[in-house]
Amino acid sequence: SYHLIQPPSESVSPGQTASITCSGDRLGDKYASWYQQKPGQSPVLVIYQDTKRPSGIPERFSGSNSGNTATLTIRGTQDVDEADYFCQAWDSKTAVFGGGTKLTVL
Amino acid sequence: QLQLQGSGPGLVKPSETLSLTCSLSDGSISSSAHFWGWIRQPPGKGLEWIGNIYYSGLTYYNPSLKTRVTISVDTTENQFSLRVSSVTAADTAVYYCARLSSQNTADLKYYYMDVWGKGTSVTVSS
């Protein structure tokens, strides 16, 4: 079965750039989505189809996907961005999520 | 603005069947551009996709759960449902319903989960 690997945690200082990676075999041949989840809340879509941002998501969120790695980048990170982030892709008509990365803003 | 509301028992006994329903507000389940899905999250853990359904009844399931899961759609009631049979403690989780969207409906790979319900907490315990 297909697996997506994320680092369990990342930390970033306010105002700096955070990068969260998601690795999977030939992930660049698929489309990656990213979801933000704050404690006690439902996930929120922040990036879809590798690079697209839903309406209402700040421009500081961006995505890329090439080779075996998709990356979520948050420029000018703010305190409100502290959350868990999950990547997701489809493989053989099955949706696969990464294990999630806890982003700490400190 | 579409809203999804999950409902169902919060406590299910081991070996019994878990049943949840997701009702739509301000949107139609019969939209040709969307699938409707279930995702779960065990306490303190990550997200696990359970399956999707199209308004026509076309379904896709997680292979690891396929033998125990049934997703159905009721277009007249504008809702879709999840059943998980023979539950164990490992099925304890928050269950989310979600809308899956894509401008390109040719392949599942284009779909993303853009609207999520609030989540229904289900505990499996005797």
Write a brief caption for the model:
Chain A is an all-beta fold and 106 residues long. Chain A has strands at 9-12, 18-23, 33-37, 44-47, 61-66, 69-74, 83-91, 94-97, 101-105. Helices cover 0% and strands 46% of the residues of chain A.
Fold and architecture overview:
- The complex is a heterodimer of chains A (106) and B (126).
- By secondary structure, chain A is mostly beta strands.
- Chain A is built from no helices and 9 strands.
- The radius of gyration of chain A is 13 Å and the shape is globular.
- With 126 residues, chain B is mainly beta.
- Helix content of chain B is 0%, strand content 50%.
- Chain B contains no helices and 11 strands.
- The chains are: A mainly beta (106), B mainly beta (126).
- Chains A and B meet through strand 7 and strand 8 of A and strand 5 and strand 10 of B.
- Mean pLDDT metric of chain B: 96
Question: Span between N and C termini of chain B?
Answer: 39 Å
Helical amount of chain B = under 10%
Query: Main interface pair?
Result: A-B, 24 and 23 residues
Mean pLDDT of chain A: 98
Identify low-pLDDT runs of chain A.
none
Judged by helices, strands and strand pairing, the structural class of chain B is mainly beta
**Helix content range of chain A:** under 10%
Question: How can the largest sheet of chain B be summarized?
Answer: 7 strands, mixed
Notable traits:
heterodimer, A: 106 residues, mainly beta, six-stranded mixed β-sheet, three-stranded antiparallel β-sheet, 9 strands, 0% helix, globular, B: 126 residues, seven-stranded mixed β-sheet, four-stranded antiparallel β-sheet, 11 strands, 50% strand
